């Protein structure tokens, strides 16, 4: 009996020590993914040589899977989650920031003979990716070696025979197909606000891009962040109204393929799908600004709409994603009727949105356009794509990054959604046999 207390005390000391040790093991420092803090390009055979190396400095080595894809030729390196502490404009030779930085560095020196275009970032929880645009058929390998208490991840690119490259690209597409099947099974069903009444119309908000696909970048501002902030600002008044259920295609910095976004909207039974983006002109035309509301059509309304759709439809390819088979046009009269009705509703909403938008924010001088956006192709969900403005315009960029502007503009967009659903029975999807209401 007398011996018990000390034994007890000893064991409690021991368990406290064990708990402290476990805390140390599971400390946040260990839970954090490895970080990449620098990247450089090397040509070991000298400028214009055959081999190009892209070297990332990491604080710990990571395993990786390297493969190539074709159409367009790309080298893809899949990694466990890595925190990239590197400016995303690295690897983008077209970036104004990159150009000015390089110009300052290379003042008086001849231009670099070979510009490598690459992207890197988060793909989804636990996964990251590096994508390199290849100038032509190439051999691609990667390895990580310990260096300076961390690791150096070296990507090696060498020219290859076209036949060998095409065979490797076919194998790469299969590798990715398998990974995608696993990932799709793992994607959580983005359930709408669970507590709310299922009879309320469901609005799916779709912030464009994300993760490895930053969208357009101007200075320190990336499209993927601007549109996520706006989606959250728009969800605020919609939720507060109590009239809708809200779901997001992404709520964090993750890459979601275009067709997956459409699939989420259809699977959840969305009554309205709003895709959010921001545009940019490389020519830096300051005068071009304001929001544009796009709807889907087989033929683009104008050359500018065609350019925007082509650029937004590139998202999967830029993120190193093999093109998914697009469902061919169904030659079915009922399908065609449904799609026509859906498009009529999309156009009605586009009109409401542009009318409300101009009250609080700037509209492009031609604010309603249409083109073949992949993300707007759900045949049974009215869908629009709102380009919030041009990050290439200083005025628009100031607006888009201002919380005050965001709140004002989002409030008007929420009112446009009210206009759209006003007088309608609150069903999950618009009654498709009802002729579209003319405003
Ligand atoms: Zn975009």
Please give a handful of descriptors for the protein shown.
binds zinc ion, 2 domains, Immunoglobulin-like, single chain, Aminopeptidase, six-stranded mixed sheet, alpha/beta
What's this, in brief?
The protein is an alpha/beta fold and 439 residues long.
What is the strand content? 15-25%
* Structural class by SSE content: alpha/beta
CATH superfamily of the largest domain: Zn-dependent exopeptidases
The ordered string of helix (H) and strand (E) elements is HHEEEEEHEEEEHEEEHEHEEHHHEEHH
Q: How far do the termini sit from each other?
A: 88 Å
Taken from the alpha-carbon principal axes, the silhouette is: globular
Major sheet details:
6 strands, mixed
**Spatial order of the strands forming the largest sheet:** 13-10-14-17-15-16
CATH overall fold name of the largest domain: Aminopeptidase
Provide a descriptive summary of the structure in words.
- By secondary structure, this protein is α/β, with parallel strands linked by helices.
- The protein folds into two domains: about 35-185, Immunoglobulin-like, CATH 2.60.40; about 190-420, Zn-dependent exopeptidases (Aminopeptidase, 3-Layer(aba) Sandwich).
- Helix content is about 35%, strand content about 25%.
- The chain has a six-stranded mixed beta sheet with strand order 13-10-14-17-15-16, sandwiched between helices.
- The longest helix is centred in the last third of the chain and has 28 residues, at about 335-360.
- Zinc ion binds near residues 208 and 312.
SSE layout:
Layout: H1 4-25, H2 28-31, E1 35-42, E2 52-58, E3 65-69, E4 74-80, E5 83-84, H3 96-105, E6 118-124, E7 127-133, E8 138-147, E9 150-159, H4 162-186, E10 202-207, E11 217-218, E12 221-222, H5 223-241, E13 245-248, H6 258-268, E14 272-279, E15 291-296, H7 303-313, H8 315-318, H9 333-360, E16 363-371, E17 383-390, H10 394-400, H11 403-421
Parallel strand pairs: 1-5, 10-13, 10-14, 14-17, 15-16
Antiparallel strand pairs: 1-2, 2-9, 3-4, 4-7, 6-7, 8-9, 11-12, 15-17
